[in-house]
Amino acid sequence: MWVQIRRAIADLWLSQTCVFCDRASPESLCASCWQQIQGSAAAQPPMLTAQALPVLAWGHYERQLKQAIAQLKYDSHPRLAESLGRALGERWQATPIPTRQRPTVVPIPLHPEKLKARGFNQAALLAAAFCRQTGLPYCEHGLTRQRNTLPQFGLGADARQTNLSDAFGVGRSLQQRQSPGPILLLDDIYTTGATVRSAATTLRRQGFSVCGVVVLARAGLHSAPAKPPGLTSPKCVRPPRHRRLN
Questions:
Q1: What is the DSSP letter of 58?
Q2: Burial code of 212-245, b = ≥16 C-beta within 10 A, e = fewer?
Q3: SS3 state at 113
Q4: DSSP H/E element including 168
Q5: Hey, what domains does the chain have and what are their CATH numbers?
Q6: Model pTM?
Q7: Beta-carbon count within 10 A of 169 CB
Q8: 79-110: per-residue pLDDT in tens?
Q9: Which residues of the chain are under the pLDDT cut of 70?
């Protein structure tokens, strides 16, 4: 019996591979590729934007973290969100945005047409893993996307803000919550802040308090964002046998 159990565990291990290097890994990323992604991690505490909206980012939008986000969103690897969302949760636990009450986490939504095409909302997957790590309450449909806006890539700051004007609505699930406390928005990338500002404005108009934003990566600190398709996988060496991704 124990031989069969060990064999089943071994088969499961071998059936899962690292998204980046295709080596056998029990997680979406092997230890070596995860170490490369950690090279983009940011050590800064939450940063206050010009609109008084604190932003906590796990890392800089560059190198392997940039590729990981593109793999998640455009190459249909949603299981990456678990590892990345947990890492973002650990960053929150180490340096949270100060709040008087425990916040409710609301991901930035996709328009239904884009959601149908992609099959998942990457922000929602990240938020679910983030909340499993932190224990914060999660409201997946706290916001709705009312307009199918143009892609933000390539637009200037003013055009981004105009593009997102009245793009969001407050979801029924959040409206029906009893005392949800402050809202903590979560998204994958923060570039100019136009998306989260529009979402925060919508929430505040409906009487909700927005305490800040958590994002996986923040652009503009080390490098400008680039269009994600056409990526190549990073070089990867075989990870040590004793090391596993936590």
A1: E
A2: bbbbbbbbeeeeebeebeeeeeeebeebeeeeeb
A3: helix
A4: strand 168-170
A5: 1-38 (no CATH), 41-218 (3.40.50.2020)
A6: 0.80
A7: 15
A8: 999 999 999 999 999 999 999 899 999 999 99
A9: 1-15, 48-51, 148-165, 221-246
